Structures are given as structure tokens and as C-alpha cells.
Amino acid sequence: MNTKKLLLLNMGLIMAFGAVSAHSDTGDHGSFASGFMHPILGWDHVIAMVAVGLWGAFLGKPAIWLLPIVFPLVMAVGGALGVAGMPLPAVEAGIATSAMLLGIMIAMAAKPPIWVAAVLVGVFAIFHGHAHGTELPESAGPIVYSMGFVLATGLLHLIGISFGLLIRWPAGKITVRAIGGIITLVGLGFLVGVL
Length: 195
Hints:
Elements: H1 3-16, H2 32-41, H3 43-59, H4 63-83, H5 91-107, H6 114-134, H7 142-164, H8 170-192
């Protein structure tokens, strides 16, 4: 399946589920499917994951692949901390801030050294992973659930990368930076509790 078809399929799935919070205690939390749907149903996660891919594409090689690899690896560490019951203050604020700051980086066309970008994305991943880990009930199958949410996270990164490839054209750079501005505003909306 080519990138355009994959992008359209994923965007269709995301839009079909509407703006539902990923942080709820309802439903089956122990399956691969519930793990897969968890990041997709929470717009706070969606915009941050897409932003990681967008920023990686904007930064170019090797960031286009490095950032989407760093994020799920560190997210797994955050998830383990959440499962273990380690407290992390302001998790929801951290998730919202991650979207807001990533959006700012994209909108401003920020190109820090690759290690700075990777550390920033890694810090954000701790908050996202912790949120997933603390919501995983004891009865859930943590391995299959985790596989689902890591795969969904990767697909959201790919959507961001797909959009980020628009930077090859002058109008595409403007579009990607505008999307960064929108992500910033949405992140701010989550942060202040408007969304």
C-alpha cells in the first residue's frame, strides 16, 4: 500500500471515532484492539504523535526516522513507570504541553541539533507512556495491549511524516508550518482545559 493510501486510510479511521478522550476507564482495556485504539481515540495523543512525525520530516534525515523511533521506545519506559505505580506529576499537562511545544517547533521551523530534538521528544514520551501505563488495569494483557498502542503510535507518526513530506515544495513548507501553528493552538486548548 502506498503512503498516500495509508495516510487516507489512517485519517479516515481517526475521523470516524470523533474527539473522544483516550483517558477513560470504560471498555475492554486488555486486548490488542483496545491498546491500538487508545492513542487514536485521544486527540491530545493524536496531535502530539502526528507532530513528532511532522517535525521529524521537517528536520530531515536522520530525524525523520530517529524521532519516531525514540518516542515509542521511551514511551515504553514511561508506561512501565505507570504500571509500577511510580507517580509522575502533571501527566495530562505534560501531554498537552508536548503537543503545544512540538507545534511551536514546527511552526517556527526550529532545527536544533538532532540530540536536542531526540531528548525533547523523549521527555514528552515519558508523559504519554505514563498515561497509558497507569490506565492499564491489572486484569489486562499488558503485552498485547502495549503492542497495540505502540503500533498505533507508530502509525500516527507515519501520518505526520506523510504530511511532513510536503516540505519538498514551497507551498508545502508553509502548509506544514501552518499545521504546526494549529497543533500549538490545540495543545494550548488542552493545557488550559478548553478542549
